[in-house]
Amino acid sequence: MTTPLWQCSASELLSLLAQGAVTAEELAAEFLQRTQRLNDSLNAVLHVHPQALEQAREVDRRRRAGEPLGVLAGLPVVVKDNLCTADMPTTCASRMLAQYRSPFDATVIERLRQAGAVLLGKTNLDEFAMGSSNETSHFGPVRNPWNPQRIPGGSSGGAAAAVAAGLAPLSLGSDTGGSIRLPAGLCGVVGLKPTYGRVSRWGLVAFASSLDQIGPLARTAQDCALLLEVIAGHDPRDSTSVPREVPAYRKLLDSPPVGLRIGYVPEHLEQAAPAVQEAVRQGLDVLVQELGARLVPIRMPHARYAVATYYIIAPSEASSNLARYDGVHFGYRAEEQAVLGQLRQEAEALRRAGDQKGLEELDSPLVRLYRATRSQGFGPEVKRRIMLGTYALSAGYYDQYYLKALKVRRLIRQDYLEAFQQVDLIAGPVSTTTAFALGEKQDPLEMYLVDLFTVGANLAGVPALSLPCGFDAEGLPVGMQLQGPLFAEDRLLQLAHHYQQHTSWHRQQPQLAGQA
Ligand code: GLN
């Protein structure tokens, strides 16, 4: 029996397209139909591109006419809804931007189009990418294709669920503290966070600018390599993007890894749930037995401070980045009625508290507009981050929190630099558990701890990848994380690709209700 199109990897689809066994239009139609059938229950896709089929027909026309084609010609791609697109909304899953239309395309979107990709739609996320479960989306949570009662992981939950459910073979996510790797791990697909500076963030709605990166999600490491080749590289519009040549990532996959020293942190494995530990240990065995790697126990003495450090730095940067949503420049603006209603309530509260200064401030129409717009436009998690960040940056606390976090960040980075003196890569779990139930984690701190193993790579700027390495007893996927030195995406992808030649976890498919 031939594999259904929606189960094929992007690389397989490319050869079918090249052979003429399928047209871009047929492919787009197949994935759109699946989206139509399955997305009501998954909630992974927020907007379907109204001209998806036209884009595909144009690729088919070019192919027939013998015109030059890009490397993604005819491949359907979905992208996280915090990447600006001129022809679809860009909502960041926030009420604040629910009606927003970007006047321009993000650089990565431009590059996808130039490469001939067919943009099928935009995927759900935690509001402004703040979250680990995709439950903070203003448009409702995404459901995990492996079990609809479970979270898909966040914040690129829609991007991961879409690939896992076969709504698209490729997607783009963003990763500030794990948002590509965590959902990839919990949905059983591959996700790569590139080195800070590898991919331009022009047109990515900023969350925490010293941490944000855009990266690919797909079923295979080979497909991630394909997509990374397209999106990586210098962009004069993002001064943090590095002017460094982009390797031919896919070509490098051909040669097998030789004699790699792979570091692992024994305590990190022990912190994971038994089923996660077991799957990751089996994954490590494959690296040793099939791929000739040598395992080296290492120490990362400051890793235990990574979550605390991240949750000072990321909200601090967020509080500054999100100051632009004031109801004047961007997005949502509170209605006059609502402003007045809220004003009355606030004035009452301030009067009761005897806050004279607060009352005077409320006299300013601009302040009233800001207050009402921001109270109504942002959800509770985003407000929490803005308050945490504003506090950590405020006079008197700056040294105690923000500055201190920057110092600890240096130490964490130092741990990585030292580790990479001894080993070529670091392997371990992506998360301590498999996908938890929707609504299970109500305490924000508990939610923040989900990021235990992922935030380190963002703080240090190093590339990291999540790879399916097994299932727990309930049939939920387990992810293994590979982290590498700066700009070692090639090494990560090479090891992951050869690992996938020896394992079949990535070929398992979730049983979806409504699936043909
Ligand atoms: N879970 C982390 C947070 O909530 C990371 C999110 C991300 O990488 N965008 O901030």
In short:
The protein folds into 2 domains: 5-265 and 424-507, Amidase signature (AS) domain (Amidase signature (AS) enzymes, Alpha-Beta Complex); 326-377. Helices cover 43% and strands 11% of the residues. It has 19 helices and 11 strands.
Structural notes for this entry:
- By secondary structure, the chain is an alpha/beta fold.
- It folds into two domains: 5-265 and 424-507, Amidase signature (AS) domain (Amidase signature (AS) enzymes); 326-377.
- It has helices at 10-19, 24-42, 52-65, 107-114, 157-164, 181-187, 221-231, 249-252, 266-271, 274-289, 306-321, 336-353, 356-361, 365-377, 380-393, 399-422, 444-449, 455-460, 489-502, and strands spanning 45-48, 76-80, 118-123, 170-175, 190-193, 213-218, 261-264, 294-297, 425-429, 464-471, 477-483.
- Helix 11 packs across helix 16.
- Glutamine binds at residues 129-132, 155, 175-179, 207, 314, 451.
- Residues 129-132, 155, 175-179, 207, 314, 451 line the site of glutamine.
What structural category arises from helix and sheet content? alpha/beta
Report the sheet-strand fraction.
Answer: 5-15%
Which sheet architecture does the biggest sheet show?
11 strands, mixed
CATH class of the largest domain: Alpha Beta
What strand order characterises the main sheet? Answer: 1-3-2-4-6-5-10-11-9-7-8
Can you give the mean pLDDT? Answer: 96
